[in-house]
Amino acid sequence: MKDTSHSNSLENEAIYIFREVAAQFEKPVLLFSGGKDSITLVRLAQKAFWPAKIPFPLLHIDTGHNFPETIAFRDGLVKELGLELIVRNVQDSIDAGKVKEESGKYSSRNALQTTTLLDAIEEFKFDACIGGARRDEEKARAKERIFSVRDDFGQWNERNQRPELFDMLNGQIELGQNVRVFPISNWTELDVWSYIEKEEMEIPSIYFAHKRKVFLRDGLIWSHSDYVFQEDDEEVLERMVRFRTVGDMSCTAAVFSEAADIEAVVEEIRDATISERGARIDDKRSEAAMEKRKQQGYF
Amino acid sequence: MEVLKIATAGSVDDGKSTLIGRLLYDTKSLTTDKLEAIEKTSKQKGYDYLDFSLATDGLVAEREQGITIDVAHIYFSTATKSYIIADTPGHVEYTRNMVTGASTSQAAIILIDARKGVIEQTNRHFFINNLLRVKEVVVAINKMDLVDFSEEKYNAIKADFEQLMSKRDYHEQKITFIPVSALKGDNVVNASENTPWYKGETVLEHLEGLDMAAISNVGTPRFPVQYVVRPKTDDFHDFRGFAGKVYGGELSVGDEVVALPSQTRSKIKDIYFYDKKYKTAARRSSVTITLEDEINVSRGDMLVKADDLPKIEKQFKATISWMDSQQLTAGSKYLVQHGVNKVLAKVETIHHKINPDYSGIDTGATALGMNDIAQVSFKLNKPIFYDAFKDHRTNGSFILIDTQSNSTVGAGFIN
Description:
Largest sheet of chain B: 6 strands, mixed
Distance between the termini of chain B: 35 Å
Order of helices and strands of chain A: EHEHEHEHHEEEHEEEEHH
Oligomer: heterodimer
CATH architecture of the largest domain in chain A: 3-Layer(aba) Sandwich
Number of helices of chain A: 8
Number of strands of chain B: 23
Radius of gyration of chain B: 24 Å
Distance between the termini of chain A: 41 Å
Strand content of chain A: 15-25%
CATH superfamily of the largest domain in chain A: HUPs
Strand order of the largest sheet of chain B: 2-3-1-4-5-6
CATH class of the largest domain in chain B: Alpha Beta
Helix content of chain B: 10-25%
């Protein structure tokens, strides 16, 4: 028996939030992308409910343009922990004519996910969707609540948010509304990486330096892939890269890196002079790109 | 690493966002891409300096109007501490955001424009941080560059503020005055050469030096049960764990406890954090507790030490901060959320409104509007287990929820 339970305040806060979700909602779900933030969420949820299983399923909105490494990792984790995984595909939303595939040089399925997500929420009647968004990621996310209410259209009303005082989380909603919950709101990128290191967590291999076929555009490093439009004059290079953030292939740029293990990655983040979302192609669309997507129901 | 949460308060144009930007810039917390974006936008706007408010004002409407509407959270860290700054808007109509920001903070920075000195808004900012018992307050007298770094000016403002301090309820609050220029960088992170008469710390030096153990509010241990963990697996067939966060003090294995409201006694058998057992649950840690005896405990109940019971009452009097455009009137009903416990409450009496600028009370009030602060008595349909706010910041506070709109419409601090 050890002496005193340790006092990582961010971890304690996240566990508290998970327990509030399980107690206050009837059908919560954890939005799982296979990225480091959602993997961290799974670990925190395990801690919150041990020795019981995590009392809600995972939901993956699959754009069909994922890194294969992420999908393999996802399936391994779900099997190991005996979790329930629900997958809903953006391709199905496209086939049903609900959304139209973007075209052109910058086309991506990232924004299309919103429709598939909102449909899944309606299909399963989820009343709380737990996500790994962090306030330090992006300036519209800095304004986000821990329990963030969405109306029946899944929309975020940033001008009329519930105040959150002390530790108290108000999860009262009407039928049809849902709450987006962000247990690691107050974590920074470095906090997440340090936690992954401390907990010795497994994460997909693309987060570590590896040789990859890439091309350069607008100062960003794009993956060479069938899913990413590439001009003829955009030359394919083979470089040592890694990913700091993982969305689908069409919206996530790589960084040059030699950091091949977790210690090296933590070191690299500590000294980074470029922000995490500096490599998110989806945020580069405009200064208010995230705020607009959030208003429409993006997570 | 230790996390220090700080609330900022200042009127429009006092330079709050600039101060935060300066903290980020001088601690090298702004990444190249963010800095480039700020340089680009500053140039577009025709400024010959960097407009750091662009780093914190996250909503389109905020950037358009050049004001902060909603609380934003800003993160940076040094070798010793992680900082979370709640950037709260300075407008009168957004008092609720200031109360919200202060409720989760252990420290506050109040900004004063050196040209304007202590104004009515300053009274409010101080009042709220004192009401919420924020232990450490830095009074940053800003824009010193625009008053020629005048020591007389600084001393005069300090004296005015000290007048205000004599009116406060919470006397243990520590207050530190610092002359700064957020725009030019004087005494924010680096000591200024322009204020040779000032021998104290810079803002960051002061924050770095705060002893986290000393500035936390310590009271008696309270354990509100959030969730009952019942795995019902072969390995843990009879496991019944009470999951929650420990507030105010520590709980240890063997402690004699009482479950409220049933008042049943038992002893703490095991304390788990995840799959490990511990002898003691630290203050603010999220643990799972098992008891020696099989007693009935569910969400909203509370475990407390047998020799240190809270008040168990169906009524209380509290200071309320009203946050909704719909008025609060005597006789109306709300949900009181006290920690993780929810009970139905009826407003008995509005005793008086308190002017948050220290100008006295209004005994004739029959309704409360947005941003009003008042003494109110409530009657509950079930007892809650509380301490006075002055003795226990967590177990003495609650929120009010409108039963129709489900919105959080007010916050309360029990007398």
